[in-house]
From TrEMBL:
GO terms for molecular function: DNA binding. Keywords: DNA recombination, DNA-binding. Pfam families: Phage_integrase. This is Tyrosine-type recombinase/integrase. SUPFAM superfamilies: DNA breaking-rejoining enzymes (SSF56349). It comes from the Bacteria. Belongs to the 'phage' integrase family. InterPro entries: DNA_brk_join_enz, Integrase-like_cat_sf, Integrase_catalytic, Tyrosine_recombinase_XerCD. Residues 354-549 form the Tyr recombinase domain. It comes from Sinanaerobacter chloroacetimidivorans. GO terms for biological process: DNA integration; DNA recombination. Gene3D superfamilies: Intergrase catalytic core.
Length: 706
């Protein structure tokens, strides 16, 4: 490239400046072949080091940016700070973000170019002698920067609507100082990741392969807010040890341990500013912390659960450091149970095992009716999650080799991160297989070793998440945006709120509802134990019970002593004991037959069950154990009985069989009376008063509900 002029001599060398100058003295060219393979080569060219004006036409010639559209962009990028060292830092940040694809070509030349000019003017006015941006107190400086921008008449905030929600946001100039400062701090901190005060799981994973949820945006644990250096060091050593041991301690657990314990340590440090360890920790210090914690918990939607969870983390931390030899000079001398009492943990109301967040059919119908209005990237994710029961995070982790066949039937193969199941196979239908095949084809078409080295199906091809899947937060946000947009509500008319795990629970419940056994459902969902699967079964049982009670309470009829139908109740409360007996007998003993549901197995099998004359078995009257209308199939049965009996009557008349006509007309009248009663959802029981007498007898001998 052509060089303009070196504006200033290179500053005195140090490790810090060596890193910056050596980085700017060359750049890496990436060339991608047609088969997606990437070739890298280093070009020794100090264009970015010596030039304080970067020309867009020059940079666009580099193969990395050959597809960049340079129309309507600034022609040059100017670095005009008075301080040559600050200029060097700015160029280092812009260079690194550009060549790593963290900042888009367009963002730099049609946005940040103006911000870097303003920053040069600001630093000249406010910090004329500044030699490094890292000397600034960024928290304080950001506020002064925004105040200065406002004084220049430059807009620093605006209101926008994202996914239907109105939010206040900073303008690009307002947030640019932080955008430059943070990567400079990160890029020039060459220490081992464990030594830093902000750990990045992406860096740790390169060496330790801890594994983390690739669809999550939680990359960091930040220890910098812990004021006491010794406390900070101890917590870092503790969490490092737990992560490396790998025993029931993953990155997600480490993130909230770091947050909760860090806040606790700051509270103790505030109470005892001269402490460098916790050896003298007393109950009084814990009580002071509890006051702060309980006050803070008021902001939480579940204060008791919040406090309970945090105290368990703190208790675990103290117990561990009292056990581990390396913390013997740091850990409290008093045992943990003399510091945090069992009574300190609030009693949290136990969540019902039946309280499972799933998507009712009423909501599913609305969702799929409006699926075309959902973000196109999220539509196939919904289909896959709904039809396979995969967690959204596992769905987002699907790769190009996920689709397979066994015995000619399609299946989906993936790893289940949460339960450590490798190569989990799920049978799928042809419709879903076709969707996934299209996704695989698209991924292969647009992927290469640079933008999608892991060959994910749902991937970001550029930006800060380049090469990683879409985030699960994005999927949830888009689903709830759709709910607001088209007004997806529950049956009570309330706006429905989606969470990503609902599709998995819905899949499990529908499998059981369709007749799958518990072990099959457990295997398909890759549950570590049957416990969660059993919760689905209990929920299904509860759902059936509620539907049963709804049907019974709608209207109960009975055959009287003459075999005629009369109403027992009309939308009135039926005794709970009666409902219990009805439900138990119907669930355990009912036997379907052409006339309804036979309940005779309560006391033994009906001898006429093979060919049940149930409507005339009781001296010409209906059987006491007959129930009609318990299922929608009974309505169809009587529609068919009426149709076939009518045909028999017509045939009998044609052949002059008056006796057969008379017999069938009696049956037809009986069928029609029953049909008119049950077609609106009512139920007819053989002898309802008999059931009441049985209940009273059972109560007298103390065996009710056995």
């Amino acid at each position: 490239m052509d060089k303009i002029i070196p504006s200033n001599s290179i500053p005195n060398k140090s490790e810090y400046w060596d890193l910056i100058t050596s980085t700017l003295s060359s750049y890496e060219v990436k060339e991608i072949s047609d088969d997606g393979k990437i070739t890298r080569r280093v070009v020794n060219d100090d264009y970015f080091l010596v030039n304080d004006v970067w020309n867009i036409s020059d940079i666009a010639k580099i193969p990395n940016f050959k597809d960049a559209n340079t129309k309507r962009m600034a022609h040059n990028l100017y670095f005009e700070c008075e301080s040559p060292t600050v200029n060097m830092e700015l160029k280092f940040v812009f260079f690194s973000q550009l060549f790593s694809d963290r900042w888009a070509f367009r963002s730099i030349f049609k946005g940040l170019n103006q911000s870097v000019k303003l920053l040069a003017e600001y630093l000249k006015e406010k910090h004329p002698n500044l030699t490094s941006l890292l000397d600034l107190d960024i928290e304080k400086e950001e506020k002064l920067w925004i105040f200065w921008l406002n004084s220049k008449g430059i807009k620093t905030s605006y209101t926008t609507t994202i996914r239907g929600e109105e939010i206040n946001a900073k303008t690009l100039p307002a947030k640019s100082i932080r955008m430059i400062y943070n990567p400079l701090l990160r890029l020039t901190d060459t220490r081992n990741e464990w030594d830093k005060d902000r750990w990045d799981i992406r860096e740790l994973n390169k060496k330790y392969d801890f594994g983390f949820n690739v669809s999550s945006t939680s990359y960091y644990i930040d220890f910098s807010e812990i004021e006491n250096n010794n406390f900070r060091k101890a917590l870092k050593e503790y969490i490092k040890g737990r992560l490396i041991s790998g025993k029931n301690f993953v990155w997600g657990t480490a993130t909230y341990y770091g947050l909760y314990i860090g806040t606790f340590l700051n509270s103790i440090s505030k109470q005892n500013p001269k402490w460098n360890d916790l050896k003298k920790l007393e109950r009084k210090h814990i009580e002071k912390y509890l006051e702060e914690l309980n006050e803070h918990s008021k902001k939480n939607v579940n204060p008791k659960g919040y406090v309970n969870h945090i105290l368990k983390v703190i208790r675990s931390f103290i117990k561990d450091i009292q056990t581990f030899e390396k913390f013997k000079d740091f850990a409290p001398e008093k045992v943990v149970y003399r510091l945090i009492y069992f009574e300190d943990l609030p009693t949290v109301p136990k969540k019902s095992e039946d309280d499972i967040s799933y998507i009712p059919d009423y909501v599913l119908e609305q969702l799929f009716d409006n699926l075309n209005d959902l973000h196109p990237d999220v539509q196939p994710i919904v289909w896959i999650s709904f039809k396979t029961g995969l967690r959204i995070s596992d769905t987002l982790g699907l790769k190009q080799d996920s689709l397979g066949r066994i015995n000619g039937k399609p299946n989906l193969t993936t790893d289940i991160e949460k339960t450590y199941v490798i190569g989990h196979k799920i049978p799928i239908d042809d419709h879903l297989a076709d969707i996934i095949a299209v996704l695989i084809d698209r991924s292969k078409q647009y992927s290469n070793d640079d933008n999608n080295p892991e060959r994910y199906l749902f991937v970001r091809y550029r930006g800060s998440r380049k090469g990683r899947p879409l985030s699960s937060n994005f999927c949830r946000a888009e689903l709830n945006h759709l709910a607001r947009k088209v007004n997806i509500t529950d049956e009570a008319g309330n706006l429905f709120k989606f969470n990503n795990h609902m599709f998995r629970h819905t899949y499990g419940i529908k499998l059981l509802n369709g007749g799958a056994d518990i072990l099959t459902v457990q295997e398909l969902l890759a549950h570590a134990s049957p416990e969660m699967t059993m919760r689905y079964a209990r929920l299904l049982e509860d759902t059936k019970r509620k539907e049963f009670e709804k049907v019974v309470k709608q209207g109960v009829f009975a055959f009287d002593v003459n075999g005629e139908i009369h109403q027992v109740s009309e939308k009135e409360d039926i005794p709970k004991d009666i409902l219990d007996i009805l439900w138990r007998d119907e669930k355990l003993n009912a036997f379907d037959n052409p006339y309804g549901t036979c309940r005779a197995r309560v006391n033994g099998n009906c001898p006429l069950a093979a060919e049940p004359p149930c409507l005339t078995a009781n001296d010409g009257k209906p059987c006491f154990d007959l129930a009609i209308g318990m299922t929608s199939f009974d309505v169809k049965k009587y529609e068919l009985l009426i149709e076939t009996t009518t045909m028999w009557i017509e045939a009998s008349k044609e052949y002059g069989r008056d006796d057969m006509v008379e017999a069938n007309e009696r049956n037809l009248e009986r069928y029609q009376n029953i049909y008119e009663t049950i077609k609106t959802g009512n139920v007819i029981f053989g002898r309802f008063d008999r059931m009441k007498r049985k209940l009273e007898q059972a109560k007298k001998i103390g065996v009710a509900h056995e």
